[in-house]
């Protein structure tokens, strides 16, 4: 009889799918939910490399190294009986491990076709595993140095629970949310929640303006970013914010009421190309106009864009010295942020919807 109480298994591809629910790619590096990462979770479940979340740790716990995960094959994974799983673990962590794994497959009547090549181990070892460790998904074997070839990684019980095939639909989502609440840092939870909210905004994006007025923006990533700017960034950053305009796809524009525009001495021309949002801080003297671009795919405040926006502001009788500029992104991990951060204009700011308490400034010393 096996010394391990083995768990039922999801398909290997199903493990990757669940990882994308736990670590949505809009908020986390893709290595945390890649097919290779899914294979690693599947392998640890297959061999029973699962330990308690907290001490004390069982003395006979099973641990893996990255190659234990890479050498798993679809043929081996299909053999879910305890004897086969015991045999694979014994081969994969022992001396001359790869040759032993190949020989084991021959006894099963298969040529060994590993899920991934050995040169993939650096991605697991140096990127996915340390990040999972930070989030409480893995534990490290005590007393084993990072340079040691000995097996040293195992799933935590609570994280392994998320890959129970019996968990489905709403019950699965609730389990993932509960796990995040107890294991992830507040910042990581916010990233995941922001990504989840983006996925749920298929029809409209409700926004509460600083005045308390409710608006429904067109669905899409840009509107989700603008919602964060209006509801989170503006109240935290500005003394007394007023949203003057919000531009949306399809030539849909929200404008502040005429009395506010008259108070500020403005007659904004809606027929011209508007910024994504204009927010004025009337708590400053003189008032400061924040010109915001929501960067879902492209369009940050570059030097060229800054010049064009200043021309627009001048045409609206907004003084150049009263203007500030904000490029708002969904996440530092978003493709647009990684690609365009280097292009931000001097004297402008950047903000990320999933890290609302922080702001980047780029200016000349």
What does it look like?
The chain has 365 residues and is α/β, with parallel strands linked by helices. The protein has two domains: 12-191, Orthogonal Bundle (Arc Repressor Mutant, subunit A), CATH 1.10.10; 201-362, Trna Endonuclease, Chain: A, domain 1. It contains 14 helices and twelve strands. The strands form three sheets. Strands 7-6-8-9-10-11-12 form a seven-stranded mixed sheet, with helices on both faces. A three-stranded mixed sheet has the order 1-3-2. Strand 10 (323-329), helix 14 (335-340) and strand 11 (348-352) form a beta-alpha-beta unit. Helix 1 packs across helix 2. It starts with 11 loop residues before the first helix and ends with a strand. 38% of the residues are buried. The mean pLDDT is 87.
β content, as a range? Answer: 15-25%
Using the coordinates above, name the CATH class of the largest domain.
Answer: Mainly Alpha
**End-to-end separation:** 70 Å
Mean pLDDT: 87
Going by CATH, the homologous superfamily of the largest domain would be BsuBI/PstI restriction endonuclease, N-terminal domain
Name the descriptors.
365 residues, alpha/beta, Arc Repressor Mutant, subunit A, Trna Endonuclease, Chain: A, domain 1, 3-stranded mixed sheet, 14 helices, 41% helix
């Amino acid at each position: 009889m096996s010394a391990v109480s083995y768990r039922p298994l999801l398909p290997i591809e199903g493990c990757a799918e669940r990882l994308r629910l736990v670590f949505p790619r809009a908020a986390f590096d893709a290595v945390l939910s890649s097919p290779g990462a899914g294979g690693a979770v599947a392998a640890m479940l297959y061999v029973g490399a699962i330990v308690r979340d907290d001490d004390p740790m069982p003395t006979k716990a099973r641990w893996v190294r990255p190659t234990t995960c890479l050498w798993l094959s679809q043929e081996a994974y299909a053999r879910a009986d305890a004897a086969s799983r015991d045999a694979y673990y014994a081969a994969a962590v022992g001396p001359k491990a790869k040759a032993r794994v190949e020989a084991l497959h021959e006894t099963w009547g298969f040529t060994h076709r590993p899920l991934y090549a050995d040169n993939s181990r650096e991605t697991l070892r140096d990127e996915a595993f340390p990040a999972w460790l930070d989030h409480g998904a893995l534990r490290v074997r005590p007393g084993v140095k990072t340079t040691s070839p000995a097996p040293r990684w195992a799933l935590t019980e609570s994280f392994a629970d998320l890959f129970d095939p019996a968990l489905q639909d709403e019950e699965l989502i609730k389990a993932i949310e509960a796990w995040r609440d107890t294991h992830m840092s507040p910042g990581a939870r916010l990233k995941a929640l922001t990504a989840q909210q983006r996925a749920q905004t298929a029809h409209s994006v409700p926004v509460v303006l600083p005045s308390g007025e409710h608006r429904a923006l067109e669905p899409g990533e840009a509107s989700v970013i603008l919602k964060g700017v209006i509801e989170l960034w503006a109240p935290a950053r500005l003394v007394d914010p007023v949203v003057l305009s919000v531009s949306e796809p399809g030539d849909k524009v929200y404008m502040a009421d005429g009395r506010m525009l008259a108070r500020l001495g403005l007659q904004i021309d809606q027929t011209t190309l508007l910024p994504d949002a204009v927010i004025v801080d009337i708590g400053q003297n003189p008032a400061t106009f924040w010109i915001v671009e929501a960067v879902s795919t492209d369009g940050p405040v570059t030097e060229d864009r800054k010049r064009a926006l200043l021309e627009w502001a001048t045409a609206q009788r907004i003084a150049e010295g009263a203007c500030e500029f904000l490029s708002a992104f969904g996440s530092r991990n978003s493709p647009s942020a990684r690609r365009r951060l280097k292009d931000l204009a001097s004297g402008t700011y950047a903000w990320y919807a999933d890290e609302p308490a922080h702001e980047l400034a780029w200016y000349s010393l």
